[in-house]
Design a protein that fits this description.
Chain lengths: 485, 391
């Protein structure tokens, strides 16, 4: 196959077409067929794996004059986003059943979001980075406020928008400063020229640029102290969208952190890894300590996702030169996707039957719904990092990367202290399900999409926890970035 | 190795949580948190060992041969204390022992028996199997600390046991005391520098380790039996308060006899398993820590005091009419206890076979030479012997 630039962006082209097809289909089909766009979107996203598999191993290289990078790292993220898209659509077909308007548009927005995240994960140029960043952000704002009649959803959307717009503007300012310093928007060019120019310029400009970009990305992954939006948005947004926000934009934030900041961080500010390590510590403690007191499970999972961002910052701190660092990052993102979406699937199922997201509603669930309870236990154990689940393998790699660096031992210790704190609030849900008196909520409504979501994530969490070799191999191949070849 | 440790710790909580007493949730979550802290500390140490081994390996025997941290004393110290935290919580050793009484009081009888009989030994086993061979220098330099903590476990555990009115809690604290002897033996073995086996030092080292391992075995048998016996009386009377009984030997003579046997074994009466083990520990430990060993002997006196005291309060004295009609032990309970009593007697009277078995392994461990061969040889030996029993 002759490879030209268009073949290399075939996944993105395909996703753009798919999004438009879903959008148009929604306008054409009659009301009682309105689930058709969702089905088309799911099938279309699954077919989207084909070009990714075709491109696997071709890179690392760049295309369109170095604007986009084609490497296994980016392809791995793209396949994660496809999985996210499929699972979120499965979780939301029933959730939005009462919507009179805009039912089908939701799924096309999801595909647009997947497209934005895909472009972002291979952005090798600051302009492309910003455009794709905005595509992801704008789509997310709409999704967060999708329940227009629900004040909480509106509040979530507005908050997300205000915080997000500010963060984007701040990041854009940082990017312009970098352009001024380095004289290029291309990452490869920048990485060659930036260091000398920064030294030549002297002054505070370089650290300032770095901090400004850090704010934008920190907001995206909900890093302390830029995490304040997350709990409110997570609580108010429609639950499938909450699930999406907790894995999609977060993962893409890490993709950029790895691709851009590993390249530009150190030249701009020598103490960058140390700064990031302190922020990672703050993020872990903030997330875990605040999660302890939550009574709403969506808020609890929001704080837990802040904490997990902290864990995943460990390999970003350790840096790409170290064994296990990139691998542990991509592995953990895959693991986190499975276990967190699984937990959210159970939350959505419960919400369908109880109408709320109170942790107290889980009391006695083990007696009324034993399978769902077991599944929830597996997801929560995996989030804690208990052996036998994929979360353990992920944490093993993360802490291993820190230990291997020989510099960041203390970060691994912070990580384990936080894992122990997190045990308390995760197990509180288990305690309620299994040991609380009284009968649990009967789960009469079990939407097929949600159940399939639970099955898939449960099998993934367990199988990859017991036999992680396949994902380990893929993640090892995925740890090759275009900028480092 | 990493997998195995955390898993054992985590799944150990389940019996206590599901079938236990009124504060079982508190006890289970406390146990879980303690264990997870320990497991993760061990995990970090394992990772540090892995990344410093060359060629990289998780194999314990390989690591023992490589001694990966011989030239990095600071890191070896960190790894040692990481392993220490995990194992000491499991033992449990003062000051990490507070989960044990709670877990025992809330756990059902079977859970207590498994906990005392097997799970606690994971900690001391870890010291002997992992810490001692892989970071020997750190073990030697910190042996004094372990010995002091072991001494505190011995004395403090015994005093706490003495103050307990709840029979189950009393035995739980006596576990802290008895595991203290194991740790004293291990600390003494760590204190002897150098791998030489033929010398007197090597001999004392092996003696202390032999005592420690035999004490693990004896404690498993004796305390397992004691928890079972407490379960027997709790089933019938639904109380475990030491002061609630009196003259029970009249109502339940067989029960009284077996309980007294187990108590005597636990307090270290010569002729029973506990004596053989404790004697070896003291013999081996005296060479390196004469003062600490001397003080530790106080623990034996206190242990004797409280066991005699409960025998007196429960079985002797005027008959408490409330319990006059309690049925004695049934056949099922006797069948369960008979082998334990037989082992207590057998090991106490003629400990040679089991000490020989332990000695082979410990000598191999101390000399390091032929560590692989002797160990695997021993293991396959034991397996084939066990298989022979069933064939």
């Amino acid at each position: 196959m002759p490879i030209n630039d268009f073949a290399l962006i075939s996944p993105e082209v395909y996703l753009a077409l798919l999004a438009i097809v879903v959008l148009v289909l929604d306008m054409l089909v009659p009301v009682h067929w309105r689930r058709l766009p969702a089905a088309v979107a799911v099938l279309g996203l699954l077919v989207g794996f084909y070009p990714l598999v075709q491109l696997w191993g071709i890179g690392p290289r760049t295309e369109f004059s170095g604007c986009l990078a084609v490497d296994n790292f980016g392809l791995f993220f793209k396949s994660l986003f496809l999985i996210v898209g499929v699972l979120i659509i499965l979780l939301s077909t029933d959730f939005f059943r009462k919507l009179k308007q805009g039912y089908g548009e939701f799924f096309s927005l999801i595909v647009f979001l997947v497209l934005g995240m895909s472009v972002l994960s291979s952005a090798n140029d600051l302009i492309v980075l910003l455009v794709a960043f905005e595509l992801v952000s704008l789509t997310s704002y709409v999704l967060a406020s999708y329940l227009r009649r629900d004040p909480k959803s509106n509040e979530a959307g507005l908050k997300y928008f205000l915080y997000g717009a500010t963060a984007s503007a701040v990041m854009l300012y940082g990017l312009t400063l970098i352009y001024g310093l380095g004289g290029s928007t291309n990452l490869l060019t920048l990485s060659e020229s930036l260091e000398a120019r920064v030294i030549a310029s002297g002054g505070l400009l370089a650290p300032l640029a770095l901090v400004l970009i850090g704010v934008g990305l920190g907001y995206k992954i909900a890093m302390a102290p830029f995490h304040a939006w997350a709990p409110d948005v997570y609580e108010g947004a429609p639950t499938p969208v909450t699930a999406l926000l907790s894995v999609g934009p977060k993962a893409v934030g890490f993709a950029i952190l790895a691709r851009v900041m590993w390249q530009l961080g150190q030249p701009l500010l020598d103490a960058w890894p140390m700064l990031l390590a302190l922020l990672a510590t703050a993020t872990m403690f903030t997330g875990n300590l605040l999660a302890l007191r939550q009574t709403d499970i969506k808020r609890m999972l929001a704080y837990s996702s802040i904490a997990h961002a902290g864990y995943m910052l460990i390999p970003v701190v350790v840096g790409p030169g170290q064994e296990w660092a990139t691998q542990s990052l991509v592995f953990y993102l895959g693991a986190y996707l499975l276990m967190n979406l699984g937990a959210f699937a159970v939350v959505i199922l419960m919400q369908r039957n109880t109408g709320d997201a109170e942790i107290a509603s889980y009391a006695g669930l083990a007696r009324s719904a034993p399978f769902v309870s077991i599944a929830m236990v597996v997801f929560l154990l995996s989030l804690t990092g208990i052996p036998g689940t994929v979360g353990f393998v992920g944490k093993f790699l993360l802490f291993g990367a820190a230990i291997n660096s020989k510099v960041w031992y203390w970060l691994a210790v912070v990580g384990i202290v936080n894992s122990v704190i997190s045990l308390y609030y995760y197990m509180n849900v288990v305690r309620l399900m299994y040991f609380a008196r009284g009968d649990g909520q009967e789960l009469e409504e079990r939407p097929a999409g949600v159940m399939v979501g639970i099955y898939v994530t449960l099998v993934g969490t367990l199988v990859l926890g017991i036999a992680p070799m396949a994902l380990l191999q893929v993640s090892e191949q995925a740890s090759r970035l275009a900028v480092h070849f | 190795m990493a997998h195995h440790r955390t898993r054992e710790g985590v799944y150990g909580v389940l019996p206590a949580a599901i079938w236990g007493g009124p504060r079982r949730e508190y006890a289970a979550i406390k146990f879980f948190i303690y264990t997870l802290v320990g497991s993760l500390a061990i995990l970090l140490s394992i990772l540090a060992l892995y990344f410093n081994s060359d060629p990289r390996t998780f194999d314990i025997v390989q690591m023992a041969h490589q001694n990966p941290l011989a030239n990095a004393p600071m890191l070896a110290a960190l790894v040692f204390w990481g392993l220490f935290l995990g194992f000491a919580i499991k033992v449990p050793m003062f000051p990490f022992h507070t989960w044990l009484p709670d877990a025992h009081v809330e756990a059902p009888t079977a859970g207590s028996v498994i906990l005392a009989g097997v799970l606690l030994k994971m900690g001391t086993y870890g010291f002997v199997r992992v810490s001692l061979p892989i970071v020997p220098e750190a073990c030697t330099s910190f042996a004094g600390w372990i010995a002091v903590l072991a001494l505190i476990s011995i004395i403090y555990g015994a005093l706490c046991a003495m103050a307990q009115p709840d029979l189950k809690k009393l035995i739980a604290y006596s576990s802290v005391n008895h595991m203290g002897y194991v740790m004293l033996g291990i600390a003494a073995a760590c204190a002897y520098i150098g791998p030489e086996a033929a010398s007197t030092i090597g001999d004392s080292k092996v003696t202390a380790l032999n005592g420690a391992v035999l004490q693990m075995f004896a404690h498993g048998i004796i305390t397992g039996a004691l928890f079972f016996l407490v379960g027997v009386i709790y089933d019938r009377a639904h109380v475990r308060d030491v002061n609630a009984f009196g003259g029970l030997a009249k109502a339940m003579p067989v029960y009284a006899g077996i309980m007294m046997l187990a108590c005597f074994a636990s307090l270290g009466l010569p002729g029973l398993a506990g004596f053989a083990a404790e004697f070896l520990v003291f013999l081996g430990a005296f060479g390196s820590y004469p003062i600490i060993t001397g003080l530790a002997l106080l623990g034996v006196v206190i242990t004797a005091a409280y066991f005699l005291w409960i025998i007196q309060k429960i079985f002797l004295g005027p008959v408490n009419l409330q319990w006059k009609a309690l049925p004695d032990m049934d056949r099922g309970e006797l069948v369960a206890l008979a082998p334990l009593c037989a082992i207590m007697l057998a090991v106490g009277v003629y400990p040679q076979p089991i000490i020989g078995l332990i000695n082979t392994a410990m000598e191999a461990l101390v000399t390091q030479h032929g560590f692989v061969a002797a160990n695997t040889g021993l293991l396959s030996d034991v397996i084939s012997k066990i298989a022979g029993l069933f064939a």
